[in-house]
Amino acid sequence: MLPIRLGSCNQFFRSPPGLPNVGSFGAVRATGHRYRQQALNPTAKLAASFTTSTIKFSSATFEWKLDAFKNLKPNKYKSELFWTSERHPWRLSFYPYGDPNIKDSDYVSFYLESEYNDAFQQIHFKRKDVMFELYSRVREVEERQVVKCRTFVKENRSCGWSQFQSRRRLVDALKTDEDPILLKAVIQIPNVEISILAPNPYSEAVTANFLQNCKHSDVVFRVDGRDIFAHGGLLAARSKHFAALLSDGKKETADSVPTGKAVIVVTDGNHEAFLLMLRYLYTGSLDFRGCPEVKAVDLFKVADKYNVGSLRDTMEDCIIDNLTVESVVPILFDFAYKYTSLRKTCLKFIGDNFEAVRKTGALNELESNPRGWEVYSGLMREIAEHVSTGRANN
């Protein structure tokens, strides 16, 4: 009978960069089911009246095969990236001789890792209340372990088991030195519609052959003194702002060059952020690996300026997902106060975590060097109100 163990992860760690991908990435599939939960009706007064609410789970299964298990080296092996939504890339990692941080070679180690959306580890989205199981099989020997609820955040991106299964038991099951090990993850996230996505195979081709292609472009954006070649028709179709900017009535915004291309000078832009925004408009992809380094804050600002709503909202969620007691005050006073929803979220975060925020010293630094007295005094007053409200509720 296949053993099942429930519980929390016993090991979290950050993945060291630059390790090679090894192994074949097998079948990928998604299923959906519904979990019915009994909830007490809050309007019931005398009788205990119950209503039924529905929590929808989506399930995704990922399989990964490593050939010749017996010949694997005492290294960390990483699967290819796989995606459960446009925001959420994942990876499996496997140690055939155990996690070196634990130093127990009698077991194999197996982890599920939430990955960054870029190579510079700037963009990461929280995965909340994830239930998942990890599974391995060599011949007839199987192991399955389950985590019932886990939130993946930037500081703790990995979850799994340093002692997932006895290595000796797996080796004894081998019939030949070429026998593989099959590894599998099943991921369930409540109230999130999972769509199985590999990185869009056309993204790189579109970017290489259209964006930044001088030959076929008809508009040039000059940002930080550098030119970005693009296509007005595509941008107009994807963005009302660019449609207005490039329309006949807006010709005064662009200069003409001998080649017939319109040149639009962006005077207060970030070149890398502007380029990634255009790439998003071309591909619809949040896979920014292989792109220049850009912070979520810079992408949020440029997407807001050019009214690319889907990218702006996504980057706002990314900023909120990664708020910490150390970062929330600088973020609020630097730029978030200008945006209603970000302002409210930062103020609530400070109110809910005031003692921890106060101990960082960030508020004291602002007091000695406020960024504009009106902004400073208004925000400090709102912080005091949120702190008072939080204490009253407690």
From TrEMBL:
Gene3D superfamilies: Apoptosis, Tumor Necrosis Factor Receptor Associated Protein 2, Chain A, Potassium Channel Kv1.1, Chain A
Signal peptide: none
MATH domain boundaries: 59-187
CDD domains according to UniProt: BTB_POZ_ZBTB_KLHL-like, MATH
One Pfam family named in its UniProt record: BTB
Gene Ontology BP terms: protein catabolic process
Domain BTB, first and last residues per copy: 217-290
Listed name of the protein: BTB/POZ protein
Source organism of this protein record: Jimgerdemannia flammicorona
Source lineage: Eukaryota, Fungi, Fungi incertae sedis, Mucoromycota, Mucoromycotina
